[in-house]
Amino acid sequence: MPEDFIIGAKLGELVDRIVKSYDVDERTQHIDRLYLPARSEIVQLVRDLLELLFPGFIGRQHLTRHNVAFHVGDLLPRISEAAYRQIYLCMCYVDETKHPAGKDHPPSGDRARQVTLAFLEGIPEIREKLAGDVQGAYDGDPAALNTDEVILAYPGLLAISVQRLAHELYELGVPLMPRIMSEWAHNQTGIDIHPGARIGRNFFIDHGTGVVIGETTDIGDNVKMYQGVTLGALSFPKDERGRVIRKTKRHPTVGDNVTLYANAIVLGGETVIGENSVIGGSVFVTSSVPPNSVVTFKPPELRLKSRSPKATPDVDSKAPTATTKPESMPDYMI
To answer: Of 264, 269, 260, nearest to 287 (Cα)?
Structure first.
């Protein structure tokens, strides 16, 4: 067993070097500033909110009609206090960033209280939307045993549940906190949905891993998508100084009753996928698709030949060798 490591005389020197590095680049330190939300508290808040959204499934079990009101009455004050505290810190963070002096522009607790109350009052409507998402997942997946399994096990439902909560805060103008929430869900599920995305009812992501939905995406009702789908930006508009112009429509619009199969990529703020359309797997779309369309690509040519287990297989005349050049793949046809 090696002896314990003791930094010894090097401690002072190393401390000085690290502290001096803080002054080199302010982007990687938060010093001499007061306000910042706590990621760990926001994550716990999300867990408590999920318990409120799905009583009996998440958190405390064995709830009854007789004790559920007591449970909510116990849970809701804890949620409201944590939500207010983090919303307040997020708003103070913005005020402090705009006015570094801080004392001349004290943050408003009243504003944070109003936002917190508006957020909490939106929970019943969020639950209504999530009930449709649960049913959409069950109806869209023949492998689902029942809606209970969807709530307990499906990563797509966890992702959309957190996104609907985060979207409410995003619409209320709360900075930082919605993105922390959605990125926690991203880490848990492999599904990346920006809190700014507007998503209709009965939304279902099957399997889910690798799905990316950008900030300005608009998704209609009864939309179903599979793993690896990207609803992204085609390009980033920039101003005369070369800086990215934010808050522009950069991501596509997807109409009602659309299905997007695995690894489909749809890009661009002006791209609209018309209602009742089907976007095939691995298709790359950068222009609008009219309603009631089926979009696929011409698959590459597959070559098959029989093979005897005892004989050395014949060389396929079409297969590339060390002295031949492989043929190019056929172009995708959209």
So the answer is: 269
Residue 191 structure tokens: 């599904």
- Virtual torsion, Cα 306, 308, 314, 320, nearest 10 deg: 60
CB-based burial of residue 196 (10 Å sphere; 0-12 exposed, 13-18 middle, 19+ buried)?
buried
> Quick one: average pLDDT of 185-208?
98
The residue with tokens 């709530």 is 151
Pair type for strands 204-205 and 224-225:
parallel
Q: Residue 320 in 3-state DSSP?
A: coil
Instruction: Decide: 314 and 299 in contact? Cβ < 8 Å.
Output: no
* DSSP per position, 135-154: HHHHHH-TT---HHHHHHH-
What pLDDT, in 10s, does the model give residues 159-191?
999 999 999 999 999 999 999 999 999 999 999
Total-model pTM: 0.87
Domains of the chain: 30-190 (1.10.3130.10), 210-297 (2.160.10.10)
- Counting residues of the chain whose pLDDT is more than 70, the rounded percentage is 90
User: Please, is 80 exposed, middle or buried when counting C-beta atoms within 10 Å of its C-beta (0-12, 13-18, 19+)?
Assistant: middle
CB 329 within 8 A of CB 298: no
- Distance between first and last Cα of the chain: 64
